[in-house]
Amino acid sequence: MPPLIRPNDRILFQGDSITDAGRRDTPDGLGNGYVAQIRGSLQALRPDLPLRILNRGIGGDRTAELLARWHADCLDLEPDVLSLMIGVNDVWRKRGTWQGQAHIPLPEFTANLSQLLELARTAGIRQLVLLSPTTIDHANDSDLNQMLGDYAAAAQRLATTFDALYIPARETLLAARRQAPEVNWTPDGCHPSPAGHALLAATWLQATGLAGPLPPPPREPGAKRA
Question: 48-68: per-residue pLDDT in tens?
Fold first, then answer.
């Protein structure tokens, strides 16, 4: 079975503010979140694997906004691998509109996400990676977090339909908040802290098979082998 990620792949990360993570304010355009941590880990752990990593997440986006910019911010970039995490804002707007955006019901979310994945497949993107939307509130069992669980389940079903790798970002974060409540995983209940982003990055690297042991340090000239 060929590896999921191959040398010289162009990997595009797409989504909302969790993926965005201030990317337009950083020189490399990757932001300060899990995308940047993935790139840093790959540079340290897999210097043998040249990759180009792009981040086009935009804070506040729902599946509707993603569809509207899908050609310019995904298909036209011709990635080999697409990593997508979306859905938090589709649910969050249930508490009220934001900049004219309203709640996106589950059937519409499912249709939108299906269209995004279909367009990506039709465009020839080799590997799809779909992360479940994570959390909204501090309490794992709040009304909106329970609703978001239905959206994550829909994403998992679509991952099977489109032969995408499903990464349980939500499930992993919920478990971490239960098991280590003393850690500030999500300061506002939604947006990850550095620890939260590190958890997402580690989950992504493990799921894609890119987590591994550190390479041996280079030998100094003239040094003898042990």
Answer: 899 999 999 999 999 999 999
How many other CB atoms sit within 10 Å of the CB of residue 27? 5
Edge-first strand order for the sheet with 165-167 is 52-55, 10-15, 81-85, 127-131, 165-167
All domains of the chain in start order, with CATH: 10-207 (3.40.50.1110)
Residue 14 CB coordination number (10 Å): 26
Does pTM top 0.90 for this prediction? yes
Bridge partner residues of 12 (DSSP): 54, 82
> Within 10 Å of residue 22's Cβ, how many Cβ atoms?
14
Q: How far apart are CA 148 and CA 88, in angstroms?
A: 7
Closest by Cα among 47, 31, 59, 19 to 167: 19
What average pLDDT does this structure show over 123-151?
Answer: 97
Tokens of 224: 């003898």
Between CA 5 and CA 55, with CA 169 as vertex, the angle to 5 degrees is 55
Quote the CA–CA distance of 160 and 11 in Å, as a whole number.
21
C-alpha to C-alpha distance for 86 and 198, rounded to whole angstroms: 18
